[in-house]
Amino acid sequence: MAGTNGRRGGRTNGRGRHHLDPQRRAEARPTGLRAHPVLSGVLIGVLCLALGVALVTQVRRTRAGDTLAEQRPQDLVVLLDGLQQREAALRKEIADSEETLSRLRATGDRAAAAREEAQRRAAALGVLSGTVPAAGPGVRIGLTDPAGKISPEVLLDALQELRAAGAEAVQVGEVRVGVDSAFTGAAGDVRLDGVQLRAPYSVLAIGDPPTLAAALNIPGGVVDTVERSGGKVEVRQADRVEITALRPVRTHKYARPTG
Predict the structure, then answer these.
(1) Is the bond into 200 cis (omega within 30 degrees of 0)?
(2) 81 vs 84: CA distance, rounded Å
(3) Can you give the pTM of this predicted structure?
C-alpha cells in the first residue's frame, strides 16, 4: 500500500523515514523511565513530610523559649533569686562535705571527728524537722482577715511560696511547721496540725529576707489573694528572726535508718 513500508505498526513520512505510533512509542520506553515520575512523586512527598515535621518542631521550641520572655520582671527576679539560693546552698553543702572529708583524713582521732560531724548533721535535721529552736535573718508576716475569708488554702499557698523561696524554718502562730504539717478547716476557722489559728495570722520565716518578701509579692500570689478578700498582708524584713515553737519528736513505727 502507498505510504507504508510494509512494516507492522510503522509509517513513513514521505521521505522514507519510519516513525512509531505514539502508543507503540510509549510501550517501547524502558520500564525505569516509565517509573521515574512515580518515584519523583514519592520523594517529593517524603521531603514535604520531613519539612513539615521540622517546622512543627521549630515552632514548639520557639513557644517553649518564649515562656520566660512572657513572665513579669518580678516573677523572673524571684525565679533567679531562688535558683541562686539553691546554687549557693548546694555549693555550701559540697564545701562542707569536702571539709569534713579532709578533716576525717587529716585528724588522728577519726572517731571524734565523726562524732562532731554527726552532731552537726543532727542539729541541721533538728531545724528541718522543727525539734530545735532556730534563729537567723528572715521575715515577719502579718495577715489581717476582717471579713473572715482567708481559707486554709491561702495560708498553704503562703507556706509553699516561702519554702520555694528557700525558707529554712517557719512558724505560724504558735505552731512550728514541719515536713508533715497540714492546714485544715474552713475560712475563718483555720487549723494547723489540729491547732486553731486566729486572725490576724502571724508567720515567721527564716531565710534570705529580700527573696522571701519578693515571693509573697508575686502578682496573683498571696498578697493579691488576701487583698481581694478584704484583708491585708504586711511583710517586714529582719536581720534576726527567732523561732521558738517546737514540734514533738516522733517515733517512727515502720521506717528505720539503713546503713
Answers:
(1) yes
(2) 5
(3) 0.57
